[in-house]
Design goal:
mainly alpha
């Protein structure tokens, strides 16, 4: 089969999967019910993750991709799907979810996709991790990023848009070096695009179906993106510095750790739910869902764009890491003054609306 036929096939399979799973989700209770901190007004199917996984893996099965490269993704995603279904139905505790994510990270390591080289992030010799530290750092990276994606999934289209930008940038690396990953990343991008058709916020009701990705979707995307980040930055054929992958995934990571640090400072659990994330600030400043998603999506693209620029200008990993830490500290300090940021954003919004009038 030709590559373009497979792209079209991935689109169709994901689309059909969504349309078939919507009525099933209502019968099985796989819906997000309004109430509490949730902003939607009707029971919404949480089957986006299933549909993306089906479209992605069925297309991979039919493509000439060498499967042994992606066995870890297959088995890891299977565990995440089972865990996500149970979580969507019964709301698992954070401890059980993390244990499941550690198992998934261990599967990635078993299939030789692990972080063993951090590059020259401390401006000295390259840091090579041993077996133990390689395992610890890989587990922390995968589990951390899965939860980072899950935490930004708080507005229509937001997590999908952020992940779409990250997969697109990873695809640039893969295409540039003609890697095996380029086909797989293309299928993932197509599946994500189809999901966003049903999830991206809209002003009108021209499209009657609405779905969310659910925990299956956020964990599937977090795991696969983390997998490709490791694959493209480790080993003898690595095509990017490890710190570049930190930039590509930078916005969810900065948001996750800034929120956790602020909660710890307030002597609260860093894992409890709240309304302290970047998208909450935009929504509190009266930005609508579309504007919030587009602006934060562009910020995520900016993180990835800086990473690409620093990679292709061949700047030392240590300097790139220092710049990233500087950006994170700035982000954290701004988020500590969330009320002031919200006030400034509200003024900007009023000014822009006034300019349009």
């Amino acid at each position: 089969m030709s590559f373009f036929f497979l792209i079209a096939l991935c689109f169709i399979i994901t689309l059909i999967s969504i349309l078939l799973l919507i009525p099933i989700s209502h019968k099985c209770g796989l819906v997000d019910i309004p109430g509490g901190r949730k902003r939607h007004f009707q029971n919404t199917p949480v089957i986006g993750g299933f549909a993306m996984a089906i479209g992605f893996f069925v297309t991979m099965l039919l493509s000439p991709i060498q499967w042994y490269h992606f066995q870890g993704i297959i088995f890891g995603t299977l565990v995440l799907v089972i865990l996500g279904v149970i979580d969507d139905l019964f709301d698992l505790s954070a401890r059980i979810r993390v244990i499941g994510q550690i198992i998934v990270a261990s599967i990635a390591i078993y299939f030789h996709n692990e972080i063993w080289n951090l590059g020259t992030i401390f401006l000295g010799d390259p840091i090579h991790l041993g077996e133990l530290w390689g395992y610890i750092v890989t587990v922390l990276a995968i589990v951390g990023y899965i939860n980072a994606v899950n935490m930004v999934d708080g507005a229509d289209g937001l997590a999908g848009t952020i992940c779409f930008s990250q997969v697109a940038i990873l695809l640039i690396f893969a295409l540039h070096h003609n890697r095996t990953e380029s086909d797989a990343l293309t299928y993932l991008l197509v599946a994500l695009f189809v999901f966003l058709i049903f999830n991206f916020p809209r002003r009108t009701g021209f499209w009657k179906y609405k779905i969310f990705m659910g925990d299956v979707g956020s964990t599937f995307l977090g795991f696969t993106i983390a997998w490709f980040c490791i694959s493209l930055s480790q080993g003898p054929h690595a095509q990017a510095k490890p710190v570049t992958m930190l930039w590509i995934t930078g916005l969810p990571i900065c948001d996750l750790f800034s929120v956790m640090l602020r909660r710890i400072q307030k002597k609260k659990s860093p894992f409890q739910a709240g309304r302290e994330h970047l998208h909450h600030i935009f929504i509190s400043a009266k930005f609508n869902n579309i504007a919030t998603t587009i602006i934060i999506g562009l910020i995520s693209c900016a993180f990835g764009g800086i990473g690409l620029l620093l990679e292709y200008t061949k700047i030392n990993s240590g300097y790139s890491f220092i710049i990233f830490i500087g950006v994170f500290v700035t982000y954290y300090l701004l988020m500590r003054k969330a009320w002031l940021v919200k006030k400034r954003l509200y003024c900007i919004r009023k000014y822009l609306l006034g300019s349009r009038n």
